[in-house]
């Protein structure tokens, strides 16, 4: 079967914030695969190992440097990489990203054969909207399941997936092709192999822009429907209150008094 | 310091470091305590292609040399030298096969060692033959198409876990040192069994076993090179493997210093971090200086060594010859002196650094809950195995005298 994994390149560590603009300073930071997408890559590779003759394509929407995230996925054992990149796509919101990915999935099917399953991480570590997987499902008009923590059975026509809910787990049968976004409970991602790493450095990664995808520019990039009102750093945490008192009784009495002041009790 | 690694060498370091940090660090205490064999981590090494980093591409390796072996050993030992040791013992089995094996023998054994499908071990020590390998008592008697092995080998690192063993036994006890020969013995050969499992001070995640040979019949084709060449095979193998012990030692020292650095910066006494005391700073400075000096010696030596040996290896593979024969053709030099220097300097540095690290951490440094004392226990073996540091100094001294004598002779002739 043909599996497409969607990965985003996100900051690999903490990111400093520009105090003046409230925006993250991205010039000198390290980048990596979005940690949630690493589980999607791992699950794709495990399905590839389970279902003989499977093929895994990696797709990323992002600037030129996002190619590194694709190569990182290739070094783990994915077969082909495709970068969706165009100045017109910069600043796309989750809905627009879902649209661009849907075009990329269709294009991947054209070059590598019909797609049976699309895997995504449940959200990104930077924007964290958690909407792209489902938006992609909607744009493709395929069944989609989010928060999947296990794929107990799968073949080219259908899959049973366990979806995590607040009150338990739903077992869902999906007709394929479908889009599934996964949570970190689903597996433990592998580390790359040296041979994989060296091969991935040389692997061709095709770049698809607005022309290659025949994309409609009216709703992507700066034209995305989402409007950003303000960006700011999280407020700094204030100093805490030290609970005075030499004995547990004194400390407790202080706390009770404080709770009463705050009208907690 | 930037040592100018190639892209592939940098990747080797990165991946070894990731495995060490993500996979080994959480379990090193468990294996140190239980002395179980770390099979799940071996799987990680296999999957990452780490076990073949130093072997030619023709056998599934990454076409590196001793330098690559050193890079892997250093990174793994920085977290746990015991778990990392299986890479070094496999190399100690692969190196004599690479240098002295026929093309058929290389093809037969090296791919499995490169992929990690099989671990390797090397066993020369006997109850009565340690530094003095000439007093080897194990025998190998030719009987038709087979050699019949009898005797006991002890302190075999990665014993029982390994599938392939390079074993030294005398084919001609009357000839003493020149009667010893090297063989490859596969686990499961009838007559080959495992005796006592040693309980050790350090490197406890690595198994150390006694090997017992009782009328163990191995095919004649398992002889490495020629009868009587065993000690030479062993000694020249050590030329390539001793830097690996140096790397282990530098990794141990660096790991201990890493832990100590973070501790002394946060530990406060008299109201200030203990790192602010000059007494501590001087110990840190000495530790870091000797680590960097050891690393520089190791890297420089193994790079020069690879530059020298690689053409012979490549030529032997291309022309279907034994590597050692090609080395003789090309007049490739031996590296006994420099590899001994690497081992002595780095292992002595590791011992000093780890003892000092325990000292700098004070009471907590002595406790099992804190990782620094383990580095000190692990460091000790690097001064002992693959030739004690005393034997290394003998060899270095002997080489110096030989070099001076031949230089004097050249001058006299000129």
**What's the CATH topology label of the largest domain in chain B?**
Butyryl-CoA Dehydrogenase, subunit A, domain 3
User: What is the molecular shape of chain B?
Assistant: globular
**Going across the major beta sheet of chain B, what is the strand order?**
1-4-5-8
Of all protein chain pairs, which has the greatest interface, and how many residues does each chain bring to it? A-B, 9 and 16 residues
Distance between the termini of chain B: 44 Å
Major β-sheet strand ordering of chain A: 9-8-7-10-6-1-4-5-11
How large, in whole angstroms, is the Cα Rg of chain B? 22 Å
Helix content of chain B: 55-70%
Task: Tell me what you see in this structure.
The complex is a heterodimer of chains A (265) and B (414). Chain A has seven helices and eleven strands. Chain A is α/β, with parallel strands linked by helices and 265 residues long. Chain A has two domains: 2-223, HUPs (Rossmann fold), CATH 3.40.50.620; 239-265. A nine-stranded mixed beta sheet of chain A has the order 9-8-7-10-6-1-4-5-11, with helices on both faces. The longest helix of chain A has 19 residues, at 94-112. The model of chain A has no long low-confidence stretch (mean pLDDT 94). With 414 residues, chain B is an alpha+beta fold. Chain B has three domains: 7-115, Butyryl-Coa Dehydrogenase, subunit A, domain 1 (Orthogonal Bundle), CATH 1.10.540.10; 120-224, Butyryl-CoA Dehydrogenase, subunit A, domain 2 (Beta Barrel); 231-407, Butyryl-CoA Dehydrogenase, subunit A, domain 3. Helix content of chain B is 56%, strand content 14%. Chain B contains eleven helices and ten strands. Chain B has helices at residues 7-24, 28-34, 39-47, 66-100, 103-115, 230-266, 278-318, 323-330, 336-361, 372-382, 389-413; strands at 120-123, 139-143, 146-157, 164-170, 180-186, 192-197, 208-219, 223-224, 268-269, 272-273. Chain B has a four-stranded mixed beta sheet with strand order 1-4-5-8. In chain B, strands 2-3-7-6 form a four-stranded antiparallel beta sheet, with helices on one face. In chain B, strand 2 (139-143) and strand 3 form a beta hairpin. The longest helix of chain B is centred in the C-terminal third of the chain and has 41 residues, at 278-318. The mean pLDDT of chain B is 97. At the A-B interface, helix 5 of A face helix 1 of B.
């Amino acid at each position: 079967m043909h599996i497409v994994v969607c990965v985003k390149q996100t900051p690999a560590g903490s990111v400093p914030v520009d105090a003046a603009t409230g925006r993250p300073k991205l010039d000198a930071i390290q980048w990596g695969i979005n940690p949630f997408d690493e589980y999607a890559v791992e699950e794709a590779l495990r399905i590839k190992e389970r279902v003989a003759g499977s093929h895994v394509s990696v797709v990323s929407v992002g600037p030129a440097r996002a190619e590194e995230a694709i190569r990182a996925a290739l070094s783990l054992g994915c077969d082909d990489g495709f970068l969706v990149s165009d100045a017109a796509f910069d600043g796309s919101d989750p809905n627009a990203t879902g649209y661009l990915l849907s075009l990329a999935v269709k294009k991947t099917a054209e070059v590598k054969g019909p797609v049976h399953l699309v895997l995504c991480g449940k959200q990104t570590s930077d924007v964290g909207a958690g909407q792209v997987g489902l938006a992609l499902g909607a744009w493709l008009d395929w069944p989609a399941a989010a928060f999947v923590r296990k794929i107990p059975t799968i073949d080219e026509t259908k899959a049973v997936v366990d979806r995590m809910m607040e009150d338990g787990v739903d077992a869902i049968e999906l007709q394929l092709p479908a889009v599934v976004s996964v949570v970190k409970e689903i597996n433990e991602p592998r580390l790359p192999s040296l041979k994989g790493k060296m091969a991935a450095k040389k692997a061709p990664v095709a770049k698809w822009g607005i022309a290659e995808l025949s994309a409609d520019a009216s709703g992507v990039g700066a034209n995305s429907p989402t409007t950003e009102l303000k960006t700011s750093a999280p407020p700094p945490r204030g100093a805490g209150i030290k609970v005075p008192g030499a004995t547990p009784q004194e400390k407790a009495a202080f706390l009770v008094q404080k709770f009463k002041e705050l009208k907690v009790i | 310091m930037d040592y100018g690694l190639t892209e592939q060498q940098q990747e080797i370091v990165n991946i070894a470091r990731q495995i060490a940090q993500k996979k080994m660090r959480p379990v090193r205490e468990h294996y140190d305590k239980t002395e179980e064999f770390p099979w799940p981590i071996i799987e990680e090494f296999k999957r990452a292609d780490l076990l073949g980093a130093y072997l030619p591409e023709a056998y599934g390796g990454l076409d590196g040399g001793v330098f690559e072996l050193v890079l892997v050993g250093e990174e793994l030992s920085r977290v746990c030298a015991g778990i990392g040791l299986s890479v070094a013992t496999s190399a100690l089995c692969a190196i004599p096969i690479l240098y002295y094996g026929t093309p058929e023998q290389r093809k037969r054994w090296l791919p499995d060692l490169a992929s990690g499908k099989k671990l390797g071990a090397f066993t020369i020590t006997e109850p009565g033959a340690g530094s003095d390998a000439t007093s080897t008592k194990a025998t190998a008697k030719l009987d038709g198409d087979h050699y019949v092995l009898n005797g006991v080998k002890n302190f075999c690192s990665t014993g029982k876990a390994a599938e392939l063993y390079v074993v030294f036994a005398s084919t001609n006890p009357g000839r003493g040192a020149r009667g010893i020969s090297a063989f490859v013995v596969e686990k499961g050969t009838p007559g080959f069994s495992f005796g006592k499992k040693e309980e050790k001070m350090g490197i406890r995640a690595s198994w150390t076993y006694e090997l017992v040979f009782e009328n163990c019949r191995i095919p004649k084709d398992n002889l490495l090179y020629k009868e009587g060449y065993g000690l030479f095979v062993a000694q020249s193998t050590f030329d390539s493997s001793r830097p690996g012990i140096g790397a282990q030692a530098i990794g141990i020292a660096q790991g201990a210093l890493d832990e100590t650095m973070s501790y002394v910066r946060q530990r406060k006494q008299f109201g200030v971090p203990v790192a602010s005391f000059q007494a501590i700073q001087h110990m840190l400075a000495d530790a870091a200086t000797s680590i960097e000096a050891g690393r520089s010696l190791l890297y420089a030596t193994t790079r020069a060594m690879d530059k020298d040996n690689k053409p012979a290896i490549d030529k032997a593979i291309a022309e279907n010859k034994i590597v050692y024969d090609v080395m003789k053709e090309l007049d490739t030099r031996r590296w006994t002196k420099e590899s001994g220097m690497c081992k002595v300097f780095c292992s002595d540095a590791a011992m000093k650094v780890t003892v000092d690290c325990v000292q700098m951490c004070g009471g907590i440094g002595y406790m099992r809950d804190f990782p620094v004392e383990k580095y000190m226990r692990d460091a000790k073996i690097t001064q002992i195995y693959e030739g004690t540091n005393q034997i290394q100094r003998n060899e270095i001294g002997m080489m110096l005298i030989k070099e001076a004598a031949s230089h004097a002779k050249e001058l006299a002739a000129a």
